[in-house]
């Protein structure tokens, strides 16, 4: 049965592959044109579906651009926005990058133009836009999750790849995220695959990790020691829940049980009640989640805490080199 299912999914992947190849070819040969805007555009995206850590990387890029004297704005699609018109990523970025304008619109060109006209931004950061080729970008940053780098080696729906690995030819910089969760051999193999697809990236591959920095609940901040050696329940609705479970274990929490929801899920009162009952029954009433989840639980009590993280490059030199790529893209456009 498993082989039959794989065969069916492979058949379904073929038309998807054909559409993606034709679409990319249309841009590559100029049948479709991208649109340039008046300020530098930095795109952050990935080859696969699921969580590669785009949101914390967007926040990092925004802060580095601010250090470079820029006034960046963020553009995103607004996938799974609620009735307010905002989604979880916009709420998280509002906390991580306060006072930074953020426009959500499937039409990224219109969103970028609105930020230029109304917020006087000097640079645009595109969130999850590697496949959105209609807007021209001055730097294409691709994220690859070290824990599942190439989506099981197959295109959707059999695997998690949004497009073939050959898409890496469009990348200017690659960040291997969650590098601390993979062996040196695995990291080297990922880099070798990237270079095979695009040799120009040989000196433009950087490793980053997401380091826990503290806990946050609606009752306030707490140190990581608050959960050390304590039984906890993990509840999350992100693309890579397994990686978050590993993070919780890294900070010393005893993960007894977990409840996973689909990525971008909007929690209902019934969901939260069920999670609390599940946690109590498991003897782990303290619930750990991500900031991306917490921003969707406005009435959460102190029994639900988000693990806050920060992006960490493998070295100060690596971070400086990455910063130099941002500076070059911005200065070249100016």
From TrEMBL:
<keyword id="KW-0418">Kinase</keyword>
<dbReference type="InterPro" id="IPR027417">
    <property type="entry name" value="P-loop_NTPase"/>
</dbReference>
<keyword id="KW-0444">Lipid biosynthesis</keyword>
<keyword id="KW-0443">Lipid metabolism</keyword>
<keyword id="KW-0808">Transferase</keyword>
<dbReference type="GO" id="GO:0005524">
    <property type="term" value="F:ATP binding"/>
</dbReference>
<dbReference type="GO" id="GO:0009245">
    <property type="term" value="P:lipid A biosynthetic process"/>
</dbReference>
<dbReference type="Pfam" id="PF02606">
    <property type="entry name" value="LpxK"/>
</dbReference>
<feature type="binding site">
    <location>
        <begin position="48"/>
        <end position="55"/>
    </location>
    <ligand>
        <name>ATP</name>
    </ligand>
</feature>
<keyword id="KW-0067">ATP-binding</keyword>
<protein>
    <recommendedName>
        <fullName>Tetraacyldisaccharide 4'-kinase</fullName>
        <ecNumber>2.7.1.130</ecNumber>
    </recommendedName>
</protein>
<keyword id="KW-0441">Lipid A biosynthesis</keyword>
<dbReference type="GO" id="GO:0005886">
    <property type="term" value="C:plasma membrane"/>
</dbReference>
<keyword id="KW-0547">Nucleotide-binding</keyword>
<dbReference type="GO" id="GO:0009244">
    <property type="term" value="P:lipopolysaccharide core region biosynthetic process"/>
</dbReference>
<comment type="function">
    <text>Transfers the gamma-phosphate of ATP to the 4'-position of a tetraacyldisaccharide 1-phosphate intermediate (termed DS-1-P) to form tetraacyldisaccharide 1,4'-bis-phosphate (lipid IVA).</text>
</comment>
<comment type="pathway">
    <text>Glycolipid biosynthesis; lipid IV(A) biosynthesis; lipid IV(A) from (3R)-3-hydroxytetradecanoyl-[acyl-carrier-protein] and UDP-N-acetyl-alpha-D-glucosamine: step 6/6.</text>
</comment>
<comment type="similarity">
    <text>Belongs to the LpxK family.</text>
</comment>
<dbReference type="GO" id="GO:0009029">
    <property type="term" value="F:lipid-A 4'-kinase activity"/>
</dbReference>
<dbReference type="InterPro" id="IPR003758">
    <property type="entry name" value="LpxK"/>
</dbReference>
């Amino acid at each position: 049965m498993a082989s039959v299912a794989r065969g069916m999914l492979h058949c379904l992947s073929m038309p998807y592959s054909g559409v993606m190849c034709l679409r990319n070819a249309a841009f590559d040969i100029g049948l479709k044109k991208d649109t340039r805007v008046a300020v530098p555009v930095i795109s952050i995206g990935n080859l696969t579906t699921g969580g590669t850590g785009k949101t914390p990387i967007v926040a990092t890029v925004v802060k580095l651009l601010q250090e470079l004297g820029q006034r960046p704005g963020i553009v995103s699609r607004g996938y799974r926005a609620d009735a307010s018109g905002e989604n979880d990523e916009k709420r998280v970025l509002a906390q991580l990058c306060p006072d930074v304008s953020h426009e959500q619109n499937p039409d990224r060109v219109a969103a970028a133009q609105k930020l230029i006209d109304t917020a006087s931004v000097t640079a645009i950061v595109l969130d999850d836009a590697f496949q959105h080729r209609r807007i021209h970008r001055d730097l294409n940053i691709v994220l690859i999750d070290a824990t599942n780098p190439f989506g099981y080696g197959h295109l959707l729906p059999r695997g998690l790849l949004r497009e073939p690995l050959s898409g890496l030819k469009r990348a200017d910089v690659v960040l291997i995220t969650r590098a601390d969760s993979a062996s040196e051999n695995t990291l080297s193999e990922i880099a070798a695959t990237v270079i095979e697809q695009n040799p120009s990236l040989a000196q433009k591959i950087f490793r980053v990790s997401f380091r826990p920095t503290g806990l946050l609940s609606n009752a306030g901040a707490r140190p990581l020691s608050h959960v050390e050696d304590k039984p906890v329940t993990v509840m999350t609705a992100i693309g890579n829940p397994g990686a978050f479970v590993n993070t919780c274990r890294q900070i010393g929490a005893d993960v007894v049980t977990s409840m996973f929801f689909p990525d971008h899920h909007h929690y209902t009162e019934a969901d939260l009640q069920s999670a609390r009952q599940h946690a109590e029954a498991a003897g782990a009433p303290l619930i750990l989640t991500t900031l991306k989840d917490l921003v969707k639980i406005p009435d959460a009590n102190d029994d639900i805490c988000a693990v806050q993280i920060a992006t960490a490059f493998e070295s100060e030199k690596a971070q400086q080199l990455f910063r130099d790529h941002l500076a070059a893209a911005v200065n070249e456009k100016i």
